[in-house]
Design a protein that fits this description.
This is RNA polymerase sigma factor. Keywords: DNA-binding, Sigma factor, Transcription, Transcription regulation. It holds the Pfam family Sigma70_r4_2. One of its GO terms (biological process) is DNA-templated transcription initiation. Belongs to the sigma-70 factor family. ECF subfamily. This protein has 190 residues and is mainly α. The protein folds into 2 domains: 89 residues, RNA polymerase sigma factor, region 2, helix turn helix motif (Rna Polymerase Sigma Factor, Chain: A, Orthogonal Bundle); 99 residues, Winged helix-like DNA-binding domain superfamily/Winged helix DNA-binding domain (Arc Repressor Mutant, subunit A). The chain is built from 9 helices and no strands. The longest helix is centred in the C-terminal third of the chain and has 22 residues. It is elongated and about 60 Å long. The two termini are 35 Å apart.
Length: 190
């Protein structure tokens, strides 16, 4: 069943169908918010609050966009408000917590796996140095694979601004990593 059919059922009184929408998008939304917020606990809270707000506002969903685009917009608004209320905390331990278990490459030796893990940590740290606007555009494009028009809709920003921010975010990330990772190890970057 597609999203529009589920939404019609929910609005006609079948509120149990909302669980299908939640199951469909909760993991994807959580993963995006972990990268954006830098905290699994905060991401869990924001996902929950976003789904509650989306449910309460479902009657206002006009169907001009995809449901997940509309949901992401709600989630990013909630996340931005959350970040503004909180002072960010950065640490290596937090990076490890966010990362969870890293998949192990069976073909790589211990030194290569260790170096790759260090590079992943450096990429995460570099991502945290980006401004909120640049980080959100980069996450939505590179991690979520959204198209420019979808990102523009989620962030309520013109497409030209999305392109500009994405270009700047990539350049800032590249410059930051260039200073951290020796040239002979850059090919191992994720």
């Amino acid at each position: 069943m597609d999203d529009s059919q589920l939404i019609k059922q929910i609005l006609s009184g079948d509120t149990a169908s909302y669980a299908l929408l939640v199951r469909k998008y909760q993991d994807r939304l959580f993963n995006t918010l972990v990268h954006f917020l830098g905290s699994r606990e905060d991401a869990e809270d924001i996902v929950q609050e976003s789904f509650v707000q989306a449910y309460l506002k479902l009657a206002t969903f006009q169907g001009n966009s995809l449901f997940y685009t509309w949901l992401y917009r709600i989630a990013f608004n909630v996340a931005v408000s959350h970040r503004r209320r909180r002072k960010p905390v950065y640490s290596v331990d937090l990076g490890r917590e966010i990362a969870g278990c890293e998949p192990v490459d069976g073909g790589a030796g211990p030194e290569q796996r260790m170096q790759r893990h260090e590079n992943v940590e450096q990429v995460r740290a570099a991502l945290e140095t980006l401004s909120e606007e640049h980080r959100s555009v980069l996450i939505l494009r590179e991690l979520e694979g959204l198209e420019y028009d979808q990102i523009a809709e989620v962030l309520n920003t013109p497409i030209g601004t999305v392109r500009s921010r994405l270009h700047r975010a990539r350049a800032q990330l590249r410059d930051h990593l260039h200073n951290l990772i020796p040239e002979d190890q850059r090919e191992m970057l994720p």
